[in-house]
Design a protein that fits this description.
F420H2_bilvrd_red/Heme_oxyg, F420-dep_enz_PPOX_Rv3369, single chain, 7-stranded antiparallel β-sheet, globular, Pyridoxamine 5'-phosphate oxidase N-terminal domain-containing protein, Pnp Oxidase, Chain A, 7 strands, 140 residues, 5 helices, 31% helix, alpha+beta
Length: 140
């Protein structure tokens, strides 16, 4: 089972980023074999990364065809604070738990308000849940 060693500076930083960052980059692999990075909103539930997507988007098709994905945070402008998670993704037809949904909605309340969008509108527009189970972490 994947875990982050929070006793190290690196592990503590990654845990903080998973809890506080608003955007990370999801990289899937397209039909041509080309990596396809996309900035996404996300939720870390302690064991998985959850991403909501619009139906029919390439990232959803890519995950179904090839579940191996990478997730990375923005680095500093000088290339520091690199953190990359790799793992397996699945489109979860059973959706999120009520607790996950509440936590996600709280995390992105300000972002949704900036888009003049309610949580109900967001989840109607972004109904597809992708769950990513990390198995490796690297960075510096």
């Amino acid at each position: 089972m994947f875990s982050i060693d929070t006793s190290t500076d690196f592990g503590a930083r990654i845990t903080k980023q998973l809890d506080n960052e608003q955007v990370l980059w999801l990289t899937t692999v397209g039909k041509s074999g080309t990596p396809a990075p996309n900035p996404v909103w996300f939720l870390w539930n302690g064991k998985e990364v959850l991403i909501f997507s619009q139906s029919g988007k390439a990232k959803v098709h890519n995950v179904v065809a090839n579940p191996r994905v990478a997730l990375n945070f923005n680095a500093t402008h000088t290339g520091g604070d690199v953190g990359v998670l790799t793992g397996d993704a699945v489109v979860d037809e059973s959706h999120s738990t009520a607790e996950e949904l509440d936590t996600y909605n709280t995390k992105y309340a300000e972002g949704l308000a900036g888009l003049n969008m309610s949580t109900d509108q967001f989840h109607a527009d972004y109904p597809v849940l992708i769950r990513i189970t990390p198995d490796k972490l690297r960075g510096f």
